[in-house]
Amino acid sequence: MFGLIDVALILTSNHVEVRGAWAAAALFVGWGFIGAGLFAWSRRPDSSIGPLMVATGFAWFVNLVTASNVPALFIGAAILSSVYFVTAIHMLLAAPHGQRLAPGDRRIVVAGYLLVTLGSIPFALFTDPAKNCEDCPSNPLMITDSGTFFDIWNTVISLIGLVLIVLVLRSLVLRWRRASRPERRLYAPVYAAGVALMIAVIAQLGLQTSGSEGAALDIVFIVSVVPLALVPYLFVAAFVRTRMAQGGAVSELMTHLAEAPQPGGLRDALANALDDRTLELVYWLPEGQRYVDFRGRPYELPEDDPSRAIHAVARDGQCVAAIIYDATLIEADAHVRAVGAAASLALQNERLEAELRAKVDELRRSRERMLKIGLEERRRLERDLHDGAQQRLVAMALNIRLARAKLNEDPVAADRLLAGAGEELDSALEELRELARGIHPAVLSDRGLATALETLANRAPVPVELAELPNGRLPEAVELAAYFVVAEALTNVAKYANATHAKVEVARENGRLVVEVEDDGIGGANPENGTGLRGLADRIAVLEGRLEIDSERGAGTTVRAQIPCA
Amino acid sequence: MRVVVADDSVLLREGVVRLLEEKGFDVVAQAGDAEDLIRKVNAHKPDVAVVDIRMPPTNTDDGLRAALEIRAALPDVGVLVLSQYVEEGYALELVGDSAGGVGYLLKDRVADVDRFVDSVRRVAEGGSALDPEVVAQLVGRARRDDPLAELTPREREVLELMAEGRSNNAIAAQMIVTERAVEKHVTSIFGKLGLPPAPEDHRRVLAVLAFLRA
């Protein structure tokens, strides 16, 4: 509608030459921007590109109102005549995603808007357009016509404009450098048109400040309109090409997947389909509640990284994998979904493989840990035997030999020595018993966990309440682990907690044995210090269980182990 | 006194047998596993069976189970269980609701010949013999509002010896005091712990154990 009014204005204008050509150009540019803008707006409502294109289209029509013969319309349009150019720059700077502008870009755009609105008003106040253009309407706002003022103001405004445009160019070039490969390929024409537009305007401003007039200026202006006119069409073309490229990529991917790629080859196939060399593919392990790569190594999702986007692929309502891709990929979300859906079966297969690898890995690691625990325990046993029982036996042997030697000449001394040997023997036996209990409490294998824990509780130096104990026997490894959890926890309660009371609870919950030892002591236990709790955590981890320690200072300590136990 | 000795370690069994025979016991049979033991006890009805806790067939606590079976089936046969380790729970289980004719000792005690023989004799005569370690574990158990704290050290010592199954006479000898003094301690202990007086030694043991396990 606006466009048609403009056309009418141009065609009836007294001061526009080549009216027909101008009218056609007016519609081509204005409708092009508005149409492409509406299209982009409906496709990406959250992007600012669509609205900015539409605004550029309308601002362009406002510019053309200068064709009007009505003085008020003419001068109003003249003041706002360059706004379209700044909205176009705004759009180029917001391209291709229409996200918020960077602070530097925002400053350029704000300065631009001020320049083409407030900056134009003095022209209107001090210039009589009729001087250069006889058919132009008179200027109702004019205070006085000052040629000197016009020259000075014109130079100032043009220089500021020049600086801003150079800054815009720099920003566009920087953006181009940072752009991803597919982004460059698709948006090269848009960028090229933008840069051409900037250069043409620089030339225009240069000519204006140098005082050139007439034909040269007109030519440059017309040249600058061409890239401007092309921008909306190039935008739509890029969008359509993206769509086509994406459709082709998905069908290519399907063909590729049918040929059953190598392990790990799936990532490359998806990277190709999405044209994103930085793409990462990780698989979900429901058991471990974590992601691993195809080799089964743990992977942390880059959830706080704005440059990476994450798409979780589900199959039959189960999370299978996550695709981590370049967040700057254009129009990628729907495409990634399509690619993920196309590859979901292959992903499920590779997920199983990754899960297997992760399991094998974990097994290998736990085997190493077990070996280490075993070695450490053997070392401790060796020390205890050498420093304890063996020392005493040696001392005893010595005492007995000495006693034998003295038996006849000094029976009293011999008796004393033998008594000493007897005491050593008692201590050695005592130590051996303790040692044997530490290696494996006989009551545990004889009678099971409940009885063994009763013994532990009885022997603890603080009163221990046994809240709940499992009935019947559990797998040996589970019983032993649970026993050591309670033993270690109660040892710590005795040594460090300064508690008056402890509570032990062992219950079966959802295929797990939950062992909990709670005290009312000083808290502040840290599993990082001391080997006891860490060794315990490993022992539990070997059984694929979990150990949690809750020990806030002043709030007692709770040691809680969950051990899988079918 | 007629004895059956059961232990799967021939060396130890022979040692115990020799020791007991030397001290005038009549070892009527030897057994190498729990089933053998029950068979022979049934056949001989001895005064006492000395039983190793860990024996075939399962090499866990078969001896203890056999002992419980014997105590249930033949209350007149005393059972003295020998164990490599102290498990006060086992001792309490073995005693059950009668401390008559029952004993639980660490195997090491065999080396202290006189005391061991005394224990065997006590059990054979319907008394009790609990290892001092077992008693120490029971007495030393951490308690809230521990009534044992009210006992004097002497009384505590008497309590422990009582729990082992010793007679006043034996306690007096051990502590080098008069039997009269021991009796006074015992009365005081029962008073402080709120236990009813028990005339016989093994009833006294049961009362003390019942108190300690509570």
Gist of the model:
Chain A is of the alpha+beta class and 566 residues long. Chain A contains 18 helices and ten strands. Chain B has a six-stranded parallel beta sheet, with helices on both faces.
Q: Report the uncertain regions of chain A.
A: none
Radius of gyration of chain B: 17 Å
> Average pLDDT of chain B, to the nearest integer?
91
CATH fold call of the largest domain in chain B: Rossmann fold
- The oligomeric status of these chains comes to heterodimer
Count of β-strands of chain A = 10
Based on Cα principal axes, name the global outline of chain A: elongated
What's the CATH H-level homologous superfamily of the largest domain in chain B? Response regulator
Note poorly predicted spans of chain B.
none
The total domain count of chain B is: 2
Strand content of chain A: 5-15%
The percentage of residues in β strands of chain B lies in 5-15%
Number of strands of chain B: 6
Most extensive interface, chain pair and sizes: A-B, 22 and 19 residues
Query: What distance separates the N and C termini of chain B?
Result: 36 Å
Query: Could you tell me the radius of gyration of chain A in angstroms?
Result: 42 Å
CATH architecture of the largest domain in chain B: 3-Layer(aba) Sandwich
Characterization of this structure:
The complex is a heterodimer of chains A (566) and B (214). Chain A is α+β, with helices and mostly antiparallel strands. Helix content of chain A is 64%, strand content 11%. Chain A contains 18 helices and ten strands. In chain A, α6 runs antiparallel to α8. The model of chain A has no long low-confidence stretch (mean pLDDT 80). Chain B is an alpha/beta fold and 214 residues long. Chain B has two domains: 130 residues, Response regulator (Rossmann fold), CATH 3.40.50.2300; 73 residues, Winged helix-like DNA-binding domain superfamily/Winged helix DNA-binding domain (Arc Repressor Mutant, subunit A, Orthogonal Bundle). Chain B has a six-stranded parallel β-sheet with strand order 2-1-3-4-5-6, with helices on both faces. At the A-B interface, α14, α15 and α16 of A face α4 of B.
